Amino acid sequence: AQTVTQSQPEMSVQEAETVTLSCTYDTSENNYYLFWYKQPPSRQMILVIRQEAYKQQNATENRFSVNFQKAAKSFSLKISDSQLGDTAMYFCAFMKIQGGSEKLVFGKGTKLTVNP
Amino acid sequence: DSGVTQTPKHLITATGQRVTLRCSPRSGDLSVYWYQQSLDQGLQFLIQYYNGEERAKGNILERFSAQQFPDLHSELNLSSLELGDSALYFCASSAGLAGINQPQHFGDGTRLSIL
Questions:
Q1: How many C-alpha atoms does A24 have within 13 Å on its Cβ side?
Q2: B42, pLDDT greater than 70
Q3: Which of B56, B100, B108 sits opposite A44 (nearest CB)?
Q4: Which one of A27, A71, B50, B81 counts the least CB within 10 Å of its CB?
Q5: Cα-Cα end-to-end distance for chain A
């Protein structure tokens, strides 16, 4: 079974600075997808960024980028120029490509606070 | 707005009762997923439907059941409720079988409180 570990329960960062959230996962699969979801206080689950395991190039979405290290099974999220609106819980998630289900396996989350 | 609609937003009930949570997926989406978010267990996959058929089951209790109707909306039925069932229940949908180009889009969730 796949597991996802987010080792930082809480983090804080000053507005306009850069912060990196860690995520590691355990799987025997070779091809899979990885995602970061954001859950602000409004509790919506919002997709931030996605990565295909067979693509070596790290995904970027505006101020959000990932550092994907397949051999180390690491998938960290970097937020540049942090904004107050980035305050939220961030969840790392794993999805197998094959196997009869497209379920997401989530980590426990990292609570990020952006301070003015 | 993700386009996934969940009703009700809040539900307060007592132990032993039965409730039904409803989910309308985004227009055209064939897949529906149910997740439970609780303080102790985090976000856990419950069950998945694809075009009316059950596709996968996760950590779903026998007291819980779900179905997807011909119009593709889905309902999650929770019975013999216990205090530990208090949680936020999310529905997500994707166009087909979810993948990198068809991510799951989440509704706003139903907050279930058991008194």
A1: 6
A2: yes
A3: B108
A4: A71
A5: 41
What SS3 state is found at A86? Answer: helix
A111 touches chain B (CB under 8 A): no
Taking residues A38-43, what's their average pLDDT? 93
Q: Which residues of A88-99 are buried (b: 16+ CB within 10 A; e: fewer)?
A: bbbbbbbbbbee
Checking if the pLDDT of A99 tops 70, the result is no
Going by DSSP bridges, is the β-strand pair B87-94/B110-114 parallel, antiparallel, or unpaired? antiparallel
Quote the CA–CA distance of A79 and A18 in Å, as a whole number.
Answer: 6
Select from A105, A82, A93, A101 the least CA-distant residue to A46.
Answer: A93
CB A4 within 8 A of CB A105: yes
Count CB pairs under 8 A between chains A and B.
Answer: 64
Residue B109 in contact with partner chain A when CB distance is under 8 A = yes
Disruptive mutation site among A104, A105, A111 for chain B (greatest number of B CBs within 10 Å): A104
Closest CA to B48 of A101, A58, A81, A59: A101
